[in-house]
Design brief:
Layout lengths: L2 E5 L12 E5 L2 E14 L3 E12 L2 H23 L3 E14 L6 E14 L5 H11 L3 E8 L4 H25 L4 E14 L1 E7 L12 E13 L1
Antiparallel strand pairs: 1-3, 2-3, 3-10, 4-6, 4-7, 5-6, 7-9, 8-10
Length: 225
């Protein structure tokens, strides 16, 4: 998996970073913060595919929807193979009312499934196959990491190195040098990409994956000698 690390400069962290020297029981300490952001290529994608049908009765609406959704799921599975899963995300049958009245004017059935795949190269084909089979809502396209932990650890390591370099610089400015680490605190976040929602797309749908952001920050307290 390819990735790149962005180490934020001291100036960029001016509002979020705190560095100080503190006198404690005979020892001086420095607190410093470092951060890093990894831009990681996603290895998993999800897509919500739905069928909405309307009929005079709930039974007819649900029956039409079942037939249409079965065709969509079979078409998607034919493209998906063993590279992912299809799971029901949402299902409802509800009355449709005449505007501003309580008069029922038919029934609406909505059946949405979530498609998850590790093969990002087939996303366009999945969308096209679902549309051709009768899907009339396609959305929720998102990209993520199956296991974000390795990337989080990479970001934490880079953030720790930056925090230590800040501590060394501060200690030097105070006429000393870094001693033992007294404490360390970490924070991290992982932001999957959500490409948005929309109606059914056209044929030969192009899909661009982009990158996933993995952010980490580390705050250390070290003694200065």
């Amino acid at each position: 998996m390819r990735f790149c690390i962005l180490l934020l400069s001291a100036a960029a962290l001016a509002n979020a970073q705190v560095t100080r020297a503190v006198a404690t029981t005979g020892a001086r300490t420095i607190q410093a913060t470092g951060s890093a952001t990894l831009l990681v290529n996603p290895d998993q994608a999800s897509l919500d595919v739905g069928v909405v049908t309307t009929a005079a009765t709930a039974q007819d609406s649900a029956g039409q929807n079942a037939t249409q959704t079965t065709a969509v799921v079979n078409a998607v599975k034919a493209i998906l193979g063993n590279t992912g899963t299809v799971q029901t995300l949402y299902y409802s049958v509800s009355p449709r009312y005449v505007s501003n009245t309580t008069t029922i004017n038919g029934y609406i059935t909505n059946n949405t499934v979530r498609v998850v795949t590790s093969d990002l190269s087939i996303l366009g084909r999945l969308i096209d196959a679902a549309n051709a089979a009768g899907a009339n809502t396609v959305g929720g396209l998102g990209f993520s990491l199956r296991d974000p932990d390795p990337s989080v650890q990479q970001a934490l390591s880079a953030a720790t190195k930056q925090a230590m370099s800040h501590a060394v610089a501060i200690a030097a400015g105070l006429g000393g040098k870094v001693g033992e680490v007294v404490s360390a605190q970490e924070g991290s976040s992982y932001s999957p990409i959500v490409a948005g929602t929309g109606a059914a797309a056209g044929a030969s749908t192009p899909v661009q994956t982009g990158t996933v952001n993995v952010y980490a920050s580390v705050t250390i307290v070290v003694q200065i000698q």
